[in-house]
Amino acid sequence: MPDPVGDVRDVVAGWAGRPLTFTRITGGLSHHVARIDSADGERWILRVLDPRITEAGLGIPLDQEIANTVAAAAAGVGPRVVHVLPGALVLEYVEGVALDVPAVAARIEEVAAACRRLHAGPRFGNDFSIFRTLRDYLARCRAHDLALPAGFEDVLPLAYEIEAALARRPLPSVPCHNDLICGNLIATGDGVRIVDYQLSGNNDPCFELGDIAAEAGFDPGQVVRLTRAYFGDDEHVPRVRLNLIMANLTWTLWFVVHQGLVRSGAMPGFDYSAEAAGKFAQAVRDLGDPSFGRLLDGVRKPRTG
Length: 305
Fold this sequence. Notes:
This protein is an alpha+beta fold and 305 residues long. The protein contains 12 helices and 10 strands.
């Protein structure tokens, strides 16, 4: 398989005008990332975008991702775009530590503050809906005869019930990352920064929080803490918890589509099928919880204030 980073190495070296060292960074599931080090101590991140990801509906168009990355940098939370290449970005190297599940749980207030900075920044040029994304992934699975997890079709009516409940009183959309796996959150000396805008778009801020909670495996108490840190109260806790369910349900199909249509990517050997099964199991658990009906009622009732 061709090395996408190697394919652009000479172009990047020509832009920088000096000898460079490239070190592949693992962890991303789609695009290809490398750290660039110059002999005089400068450091950047090279992000080579795989067009198959957009073609499979697993990310926004490459030009839109670039534009949203620029907007996120202007908000003070995303990395600065240093140079744009065909199909690739050279980004500011964010000096810090990528968070893992325990670290996100320990930094809930900092993570919420980073989201508020992003959400208050320049709007993105596209919108994002987790419900539209779910329908798109379902259509791709059916068109390409990709096997859904057993029982997936059975829970779809509940997903559409969540959609109808949330639509009763929608929140204004804000520029959201929409894919805040723990590793996309970088702890620095100045707070948490956010990287990788592959699925970014204007969206309900409660989806951003629900997605964080899903990826970090938050329990209901941690969801309350995250919601309170972002909004200053608990009013939107049911909305965040329902979006947590939708994140797990929809990203189940992200992994199914990736496995079926892309097949290889930035992490050869990664078990996409096992990840899909795990996310679906979490969604089924929460859909079957006795509190599910109360969550629906909680977003249907009039807001206070």
